[in-house]
Amino acid sequence: MLFMKQKPLNIYSWNVNGIRAWYKKGRFDQMLHMKPDILCLQEIKATPDQLPAELLAPTGYFTYFEYPKIKKGYSGVAVYTKIKPEKVEYGLNIEHLDMEGRMVTLYFEDFVLINCYFPNGGGESHRLEYKMKFYEAFLVKLNKIRLKYKKIIFCGDLNVAHTEIDIERPKENENHVGFLPQERAWVDSLIKHDYVDVYRETHKDERKKYTWWDVKTRSRERNVGWRIDYFFTTENLIKNVKRAVIHDEIMGSDHCPISLEIEI
Predict the structure, then answer these.
(1) Protein fold of 7-259
(2) Which of 29, 37, 110, 157 is catalytic?
(3) Which of 39, 146, 206, 223 lies most in the core, judged by the most C-beta atoms within 10 Å?
(4) Whether the predicted pLDDT of 2 surpasses 60
């Protein structure tokens, strides 16, 4: 693990809203040009057998995919890593919550990395219930991992804007899924368990930095957005963060990529 000791890790996370379309736009090449040590993608909407060789096994990276086993063209996550993990787990080990292929956990020598695409919770009422159950089970899993592994990083699309400065129009959305009190309270509970929202910790009261914009209303042009994509770390790692960036200048999805530079 000498590689990790020599320089900070560059980790990128991006909800690509369909990896095949994203790839055809040249965004995968763009990401590789930025030389991530680890690249985490969410909402890939594809299975490995549907991917070209460059996406399936790019030179220099180990690849891990999780996807729905029943519903194709939906959900799914991928991880590309230059560092081979010692162990990889898929899902929460709860069958009804793992059917949609939302989570990959990689165990490295010095830390654990989780890439997760959390449920949206919109639409039929049972979807919000599913989302809240997923949230609760995720925190239980996280705390269980921490009993043995003290350094944890998790990233992905959490599908919730935590505070009023994480959304352009908080009053208009206070009854909207993604900004409901119970969803925001769950993020509060993460923080109470000593997990740190890296971007907010390092940018404090910064406003108008978002990671998702509604395509139908062309809200990106007006920056009417939501910050719903995150990096969290255990509290013992926050001092090692060199920088956290929202790359809102990069197009290719209704989300933009975020990145974390950190010493482990």
Answers:
(1) Deoxyribonuclease I; Chain A (3.60.10)
(2) 157
(3) 39
(4) no
